[in-house]
């Protein structure tokens, strides 16, 4: 069986898939890859199913050794990955395309030059147990993924058998340049969604139940000022600073449902943007929700950077999501044609 | 009484019984959650109850808001009024030893009681699991005697050990995982509330009747060993 070995680990590397459903009634977060578009793209480029898991790296990446020739794809944040052979001669690694890594070599992921979260998919999928219907690592409750925790130096992960599509891709790529000992990749890449502007990102939002609790001028401030991603930002949520918003009403609320994308306003006035590992319920007023189509962009925001919000209607938000799905499907069809033409 | 149906972002809806009193709303939520969850259509992912509202999560690639809303309002008309006969009675052992009960003196002082009074009051009340949330398996319990209502701590602890029994405002609850938390900790149970390897993973169900049974330190240590 194929295995990969972690020589060094990044800031927060976890195994993630599409997340869990059906357990929110007992307080279990949905979890899953924060940038689900990059995650799915990586999986599909190596012929994995939509349910397969990837390795999600945050801000700084891992160094991983490959025991056998392995088909992989790297998407999302640009961590300037380099490939090192046994004598540590290195070369840059292609991203956003399928690629065969020669046995015995290592990929070193560096600090993210752009974006925040990088996804590594491996043909055949990461072989970790399914817990509550998913392979996603639930960090807070410490289950799922690899031992319910972040990946660390010394970890060794078993890799399953590539799918038929994966095998065909390996054959096609190997025909390009066989036996050279170099990574084999095509001369194209697919990137259906751009990484956010590192100076000023924009996230589209829809109204929340308590948006009317903002006065007209406070609502204008929500939509016309820049918020800063604080360093207190993780897979559960991002704390946003630089602007304090005030509500016209102050009421203790009973906990109600939350979803990733929800923008809560706690009493201190600094909004919190909830991400995939958020609790399924929360008791703070909800002043808006980042639309599902922009959660992948939110996943790529970096601590310290600025972000602003633009209001769209619910209908628009749902149309944007369907358009994004179509864009991803088209990109994958193109990639497939390029590999198997 | 018809509840309100509001969007929660672009891929969920909150159904809230805002005009009913809390107890009636809570019963309506339990009934409707069960019915909606059993009659999900393609595109509806899951239905989860809160206190006086429930949340329907749907795939906005498959259902537009108008379709989701239509399904919810149609389904709500068919929710049968069920008499709940499935309520269980569970006894949860709690060790109120000072080593675990970090905030027992604070709670006692706040109400001019001594620690024994707090333990006596807390373990002689009947509680109902109103909701499970915050972290996997964390039960929010109603029924805390008013003499023990205590505001949350001004600054939350960074780490509360799993099993900690605590008071937050008018509610009591049990931390099911090691998490940050702002409730006042008055004891610890050796019972494991959440175990992803167990089926079902969550020990308690919404609607369960709970009593806390005091145990001493020796009994606590013995039961931890057994588990």
Describe the structure.
Chain A has 341 residues and is α+β, with helices and mostly antiparallel strands. Helices cover 19% and strands 28% of the residues of chain A. Chain A folds into 2 domains: 2-191, no CATH class; 200-321, Cyclophilin-like (Cyclophilin, Beta Barrel), CATH 2.40.100.10. In chain A, the strands form 4 sheets. Chain A has a 7-stranded mixed β-barrel. A 6-stranded antiparallel sheet of chain A has the order 7-6-9-4-1-11, with no helix packed on it. Chain A has a 5-stranded antiparallel sheet with strand order 2-3-10-5-8. Chain B has 2 domains: 4-77, Gyrase A, domain 2; 89-226, Cyclophilin-like (Cyclophilin), CATH 2.40.100.10. The mean pLDDT of chain B is 93. In chain B, a hairpin with a 3-residue loop joins strand 3 and strand 4. Chain B is elongated and about 55 Å long.
List keywords for this structure.
heterodimer; A: 341 residues; alpha+beta; Cyclophilin; 2 domains; seven-stranded mixed barrel; six-stranded antiparallel beta sheet; 20 strands; B: 227 residues; Gyrase A, domain 2; seven-stranded mixed beta sheet; four-stranded antiparallel beta sheet; 5 helices; 29% strand; elongated
């Amino acid at each position: 069986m194929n295995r990969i070995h972690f020589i060094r680990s990044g800031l927060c590397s976890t195994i993630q898939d599409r997340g869990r459903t059906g357990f929110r009634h007992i307080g279990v977060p949905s979890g899953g890859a924060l940038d689900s578009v990059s995650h799915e793209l990586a999986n599909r480029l190596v012929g994995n199913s939509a349910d397969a898991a990837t390795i999600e790296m945050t801000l700084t990446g891992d160094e991983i050794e490959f025991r056998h020739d392995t088909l992989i794809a790297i998407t999302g944040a640009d961590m300037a990955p380099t490939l090192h052979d046994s004598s540590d001669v290195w070369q840059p690694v292609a991203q956003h395309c399928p690629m065969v890594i020669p046995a015995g070599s290592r990929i070193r992921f560096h600090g993210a030059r752009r974006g925040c979260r990088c996804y590594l998919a491996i043909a055949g999928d990461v072989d970790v147990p399914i817990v509550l219907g998913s392979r996603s690592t639930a960090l807070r409750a410490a289950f799922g993924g690899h031992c319910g925790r972040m990946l660390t130096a010394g970890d060794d992960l078993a890799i399953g058998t590539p799918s038929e599509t994966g095998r065909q891709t390996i054959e096609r790529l190997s025909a390009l340049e066989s036996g050279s000992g170099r990574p084999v990749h095509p001369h194209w890449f697919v990137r259906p969604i751009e990484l956010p502007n590192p100076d000023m990102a924009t996230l589209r939002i829809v109204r929340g139940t308590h948006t009317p609790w903002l006065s007209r001028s406070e609502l204008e401030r929500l939509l016309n000022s820049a918020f800063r991603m604080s360093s207190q930002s993780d897979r559960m949520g991002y704390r946003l600073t630089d602007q304090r918003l005030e509500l016209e009403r102050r009421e203790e609320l009973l906990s109600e449902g939350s979803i990733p994308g929800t923008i809560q306003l706690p009493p201190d006035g600094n909004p919190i943007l909830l991400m995939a590992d958020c609790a399924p319920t929360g008791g703070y007023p909800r002043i808006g929700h980042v639309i599902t189509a922009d959660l992948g962009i939110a996943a790529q925001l970096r601590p310290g950077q600025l972000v602003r919000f633009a209001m769209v209607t619910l209908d628009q938000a749902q149309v944007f999501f369907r358009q994004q799905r179509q864009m991803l499907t088209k990109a994958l069809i193109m990639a497939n044609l390029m590999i198997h033409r | 009484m018809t509840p309100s149906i509001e969007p929660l972002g672009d891929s969920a809806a909150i159904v809230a019984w805002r005009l009913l009193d809390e107890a009636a709303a809570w019963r309506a939520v339990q009934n409707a959650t069960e019915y909606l969850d059993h009659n999900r259509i393609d595109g509806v992912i899951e239905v989860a109850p809160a206190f006086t509202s429930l949340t329907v999560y749907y795939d906005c690639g498959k259902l537009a808001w108008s379709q989701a809303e239509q399904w919810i309002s149609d389904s709500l008309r068919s929710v049968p009024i069920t008499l709940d006969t499935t309520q269980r009675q569970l006894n949860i052992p709690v060790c109120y030893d000072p080593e675990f009960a970090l905030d027992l003196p604070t709670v006692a002082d706040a109400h001019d009681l001594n620690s024994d009074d707090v333990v006596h009051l807390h373990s002689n009340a009947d509680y109902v699991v109103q909701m499970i949330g915050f972290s996997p398996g964390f039960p929010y319990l109603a029924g805390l005697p008013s003499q023990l209502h205590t505001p949350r701590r001004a600054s939350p602890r960074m780490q509360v050990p799993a099993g900690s029994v605590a008071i937050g405002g008018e509610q009591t609850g049990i931390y099911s995982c090691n998490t940050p938390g702002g409730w006042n900790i008055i004891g610890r149970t050796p019972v494991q509330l959440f175990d992803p390897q167990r089926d079902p993973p969550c020990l308690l169900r919404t609607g369960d009747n709970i009593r806390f049974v005091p145990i001493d330190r020796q009994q606590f240590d013995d039961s931890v060993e057994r588990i």
